[in-house]
Each structure stands twice: as structure tokens, then as C-alpha cells.
Automatic annotation (TrEMBL):
Protein name: Fe2OG dioxygenase domain-containing protein
Similarity remark: Belongs to the iron/ascorbate-dependent oxidoreductase family.
GO molecular function: metal ion binding; oxidoreductase activity, acting on paired donors, with incorporation or reduction of molecular oxygen
Keywords: Iron, Metal-binding, Oxidoreductase
High-level lineage: Eukaryota, Viridiplantae, Streptophyta, Embryophyta, Tracheophyta
InterPro entries recorded: DIOX_N, IPNS-like_FE2OG_OXY, IPNS-like_sf, Oxoglu/Fe-dep_dioxygenase_dom, Plant_2OG-oxidoreductases
Organism: Lactuca sativa (Garden lettuce)
Domain Fe2OG dioxygenase intervals: 170-270
Length: 321
């Protein structure tokens, strides 16, 4: 920490964990056992890791980035067709803050948020965007669900345990596309304030322009130096379900590069009707008290949105210890 108590931006001594996805899905029994241990350690010690050899084609990601850029380069009038405000609206296009707001510390971005599972939603333009997004989210969902199996085993459960307990077959998946304009387009501060995500795991891919930072041991550090890798972040319901063992990762975006930054972000959570609390099996095994109140996932999403606008955190309402 700095002398005034604010997190510093110094690099830590330990390197960011890197997980090889191929060892989880097609490695030997020994390799899979080792990578499950590594996932557990990364989730517990860091709350995040970089994922390599994930099997999602680079050409598909590049096409998604290009289509996303085309969407945000449409006219304001065209994008207003997809403007929405409710957290559960299937398509939401907006900006990070009101440009009339006088708070100069606010950070700017545009975003498009799509509910893509259990039902797929996407704008009908630009041409081909919906088809690309449909393919992309199916592949990222497959990766996320395999990672959840690994997390489940790392907690001492069967691979299928979290899927069954949290009804992940009907799970809530978003595709959030964040657009941080170049300095030629916007000369103000670009980024996203510190926050955690709802759900279990968030997958994030950036277009090569750095900006993602995570808070680790009181220091803000970059998560941007592994080629063709997804950043994987523990989210709020991972912390709740694990009863605090795997903490939700605080992260932010600070864009210093002059170029346009685009990120493809996939929060993955339980079904909207699922009530999530600490795992009963975990509480029984560890003979510990629950640290969080159970809450229906849809209600948590609404609470999180409301409190975030007030500068608060939903955990403040459900944390017991």
C-alpha cells in the first residue's frame, strides 16, 4: 500500500498463474490431476489465472473483434435501437457514464451486453455479427463448463457436483463487449472502475491493447502479457459457493495506450432461479459456519446493479462473517 492507503501498481514477485486447458481435457490422468491442483491453487491464492491452449480458433476471435468494432462504429442513432436499462434485458447497449456528469474521475467506455444462454440474443447488425457471436459463445461456454468441472474437483467434489447443484445446464451466460475508443476518438480517461463480477467464472479476451489490472496483495498488476490467452477471473458466486475459499477477484481497466481497446467478456453463472449459498457439503466437511446468506441468482443481479450505482457491493448485504 502507498502512504495514503491506496493500492500501488508494483509488480509482484510471484508470476501470474498460467493454466494449460488442453491438459484438463485431453491430458493423461496424472497431468489432469496436476492441472486440477493448479486450478485450485490459482483460485485460492490469486482468484485469477491465464488460460492457454483453450482450443478457440484465433481466426474466430479476430473475426469477433472485427465485427464488434463495426458495431461500435455504427452511428449513434443505429446503436440507440439497442439501448436498454434493465439488468435482465436481453440486449443492452450503453456507455460507462453520463457525459454530462461533472465527476472528472469517471472512466469512459461503451458496452454491449447480451444474454446468450439459456437463450441467445444479439443485434441483427452489422451483417454476420449474430452468426459469429453464436458460434463464439458456444465455444466459450464449453471452456467455462470444463473449467467449472476442474474447480469442482479442486474443492474435493465430483466433476459434476457444481453443475448439478447450480443448474448450470440452464445457466446464465453473458457476452459483454467493451469498447474503449482511441485517443483520436475520445481524449478523456478510458477504463472501468474497480469491481467484481457476478457468477462463477468470467472469461475475458482482449484485442492486444492492455488495460486489465487485478488487485493482488494490495498491488494493482496487469493481466495482459500471455499471447492468445484468456484471462479467467473468480466471480462472486464462486466465493459464495466455496464459502470464501475462492475469493471473487477485484479488477479494473485503465487504458493508457492510444489505440482502441476491445474486450470480449463472458460471465458464467447458475440459472436465474437457482438460490446460491455456501455448499452444504463443504460446510459439513469443514465443520464451519456459512459466511454468506443464500440468495436467488436473479435477485443478486438486481441487487448488485443497484448497489454498484451507489458505490457499494452486494456482498455487504449477504456476508455473515
Amino acid at each position: 500500500m502507498s502512504s495514503n492507503g491506496a493500492p500501488t501498481s508494483l509488480e509482484p514477485q510471484d508470476p501470474m498463474p498460467v493454466i494449460d486447458y488442453s491438459l484438463l481435457t485431453s491430458g493423461t490422468a496424472h497431468e489432469r490431476s496436476k492441472v486440477i491442483q493448479d486450478i485450485g491453487k490459482a483460485c485460492e491464492d490469486w482468484g485469477c489465472f491465464m488460460l492457454v491452449n483453450h482450443g478457440i480458433p484465433e481466426i474466430l476471435i479476430a473475426e469477433m473483434m472485427h465485427a464488434s468494432n463495426e458495431f461500435f462504429n455504427m452511428t449513434t442513432e443505429e446503436k440507440l435501437e439497442f439501448e436498454a436499462h434493465g439488468v435482465l434485458d436481453p440486449i443492452r447497449c450503453s456507455t460507462g457514464f453520463n457525459p454530462d456528469n461533472k465527476n472528472k474521475d469517471l472512466l469512459w467506455r461503451e458496452y454491449l451486453r447480451l444474454i446468450v444462454h439459456p437463450d441467445f440474443n444479439c443485434p441483427h447488425k452489422p451483417p454476420g455479427f449474430s452468426e459469429l457471436a453464436s458460434i463464439y459463445v458456444k465455444k466459450t461456454r464449453m471452456v467455462a463448463m470444463e473449467l467449472v468441472k476442474g474447480v469442482s474437483e479442486s474443492l474435493g467434489f465430483e466433476a459434476s457436483y457444481m453443475n448439478e447443484e447450480l443448474n448450470l445446464d440452464s445457466g446464465f451466460q453473458l457476452l459483454a463487449i467493451n469498447y474503449y475508443p482511441s485517443l483520436m476518438e475520445f481524449d478523456g480517461k478510458r477504463g472501468l472502475m474497480p469491481h467484481t463480477d457476478h457468477g462463477l467464472l468470467t472469461l475475458l479476451y482482449e484485442n492486444g491493447v492492455p488495460g486489465l489490472e487485478v488487485l493482488q496483495n494490495g498491488k494493482w498488476i496487469g493481466m495482459s502479457d500471455v499471447p492468445n490467452a484468456f484471462a479467467i477471473l473468480n466471480s462472486d458466486h464462486m466465493e459464495i459457493f466455496s464459502n470464501g475459499k475462492y475469493k471473487s477477484k477485484l479488477h479494473r481497466t485503465i487504458v493508457k495506450d492510444k489505440r482502441t481497446r476491445i474486450t470480449l467478456v463472458n460471465p458464467n453463472g447458475p440459472s436465474l432461479d437457482t438460490t446460491v449459498g455456501p455448499s452444504s457439503r463443504l460446510l459439513e466437511h469443514d465443520t464451519c459456519l456459512p459466511r454468506y446468506l443464500p440468495m436467488k441468482y436473479s435477485e443478486y443481479l438486481k441487487l448488485q446493479t443497484k448497489l454498484t450505482m451507489e458505490g457499494k457491493h452486494a456482498f455487504d448485504k449477504i456476508r455473515l462473517l
